[in-house]
Here is the input.
Amino acid sequence: MNTHRRSWWKTVLGLVLTAIMLFPVYWMLNVSLTRTGDMRADPPHWFPWAPTFEGYTDVFGDQLPALTTSILVGLGCVALTLLISAPAGFALAQLRPRGSGVLSFLLLVAQMIPSVVMAMGFYAIYVRLGWLNTVWGLIIADSTIAVPFGVLLFTAFMSGIPRELVQAAKVDGASTWRTFRSVVLPVSRNSVLTVSLFAFLWAWSDFIFASTLNRNGDQIPITLGIYAYIGNNTTQWNSIMATAVVASVPAAVLLVVAQRYVAGGVTAGAVKD
Amino acid sequence: MSPTVNGATVVAGAAAPATTASAPPTRRRMSSTRWAALAFLAPLLAYLAIFYAYPLYRNVELSLHDYTPRAFVQGNAEFLGLANYADVVTSSTFGLALRNTALFTLVSIAAQYAIGLALAVFFHHHFRLSAVLRAMFLVPWLLPLIVSASTWSWMLNSENGIVNSVLEAFGIGQINWLTSPDSALWSVIVANIWLGIPFNLVILYAGLQNISGDLYEAAALDGANAWQRFWRVTFPLLRPVSAITLLLGLIYTLKVVDVIWIMTTGGPGNASITLAVWSYREAFGTGQPDFSPAAAVGNLLIVIALAAGFVYLYLQHRQERS
Here is the structure.
């Protein structure tokens, strides 16, 4: 009985802490539903008693192209990341060529390079090639965040695949490529999901590359859509917050659908199971 | 026990004698594996060369020349050697940016780690709803940074922000969180701490789960109270996980541009400028892009990040050997 009472107390504390932590998220929702006239009310309205959907009408009026661009960039980034990192992870984990230690180290170092530095390098290159303000240019730049992570995660996971399994496929006459495609990849389904999830989320959330390489284009992603709103009409915070809510949808969906993979991706490499 | 490569080769040879007749000798097979490995790595190697090494090389080149937007297109920028670096280091912004970077990074990761660890220990006591609430804590980390940063700037708005409105109820006058030089840096630090808590919580929680429950029982039998159990058992055993959490936090926080840029653009004036924000502002933040000093600042930032990384690797190496 004592333990029961004590754990009840902990649940209440947990609820309070979560409420404090998520208050900004609640506030974003609240402001997105507040009427423009009430935006500067003093004190601010704590609950959207008279909700308005002006903000959301604006989002779907103005931001649909930006949302489409973001989805396109996200999916492109997932495809590019998987295409490069899955075979590389397989090679590093199962074929272990000479110099793989050096390569893993380089990938670790690559993750330390600030995006703003990469953005300048890409800008200098894209300006010559005429790749500024293109969707594929942004896909390539965004993928530089995900590829080193992807290779390291695939290497860590694929090292755990029993060598017997890979060798058995070889004995059956499968080529290395077939072994990879028909044996290793299906077994690695979870890590494929984790890498895809993060590649999509990072590309979707990216602001630095979008605001440097894609700022004058017709096809801007949703993060720049929000940024343009902030710059233009500081009075319409309900529209800004409505766009922010819509831009948060993928994160919310992924959290509900794939929480296991999110936690797996965060802890990959940091904690040995 | 996992079989070695040689062992597996032997098994393969024994199991399929019919095919070994035409199979190449071991040495050639080894080299065929090497070719296969190279083929599988080729896309990555090409990718790293074109999309990592080349932009970095261009960045070094930018920092050694005087690139104006026109010189960018024409490609005839004047070579300056290290003059850009000298200008940057002697600039009055440099000391401030360095101090702010140190403050922003160290305060952020220390607070994120402390709060993350406290929450991880709290959630480690399983209670009703603990798994759901722990999942909810991930939300701030998954939101696009521009979403969180713009929400925070509206919450901290001087006239209409909820934070000032609550403080007013307690009789505290208006604080210009983002527009006063005294508080701008601290405001972005608070927002950044909030952003980093989920990451610390998840990693440290996973670390806690790997500590055997027997140890706690033994400590409890020896009469250790909860506080002593934390400092004598949990904290020392969590050291490797703590180290990697802090390192990842350090590397991540050094790079932060979005949060600061969206909330204060490094201002007012230079009050909340960090090296990363300075670099971004010089290159992309004004109507007059100044790529060469921006690249110099960026390269200095890389050097700092790498130095931090190597110090960590060295410490880890020494710890493993002892």
